[in-house]
UniProtKB/TrEMBL annotation:
Name under which the protein is recorded: DM2 domain-containing protein
Coiled-coil ranges per UniProt: none
Family matches, as SMART domains: SWIB (SM00151)
PANTHER family assigned to the protein according to its UniProt record, in alphabetical order: SWI/SNF-RELATED MATRIX-ASSOCIATED ACTIN-DEPENDENT REGULATOR OF CHROMATIN SUBFAMILY D
Domain DM2 stretches: 19-97
């Protein structure tokens, strides 16, 4: 069952959902991180998030900060610390808008 807010977003703007779930050919740094040549933006975010959780990269004092290791830094523009709110925007940079 989808939350009401998500249902409203999907019905109001189906292109927004398509941008999240369409498969895209990945640039090489992201391809090496994810281990696939094609993935959706949402799938890429899920891979990054699971990597952060598996490797305990969240700051123990402030859970809104992520301490990036070398592998994560390679796709997050070389930043050593990133706020969780910044993650979607940084990942979106690897998925250029393709005219349809």
């Amino acid at each position: 069952m989808l939350p009401q807010r998500l249902k409203k977003t999907i019905t109001d703007n189906p292109k927004k959902l398509a941008n999240l779930i369409d498969l895209v050919n990945l640039p090489s740094p992201v391809r090496e991180f994810v281990g696939q040549s094609q993935i959706s933006r949402l799938g890429c975010f899920m891979c990054v998030w699971s990597y952060i959780k598996e490797n305990n990269l969240q700051d123990p004092n402030n859970k809104n900060l992520v301490n990036c290791d070398e592998k994560l830094r390679s796709i997050l523009l070389g930043k050593s610390r990133v706020e969780l709110a910044e993650l979607p925007a940084l990942i979106k940079l690897h998925f250029p808008k393709v005219p349809k």
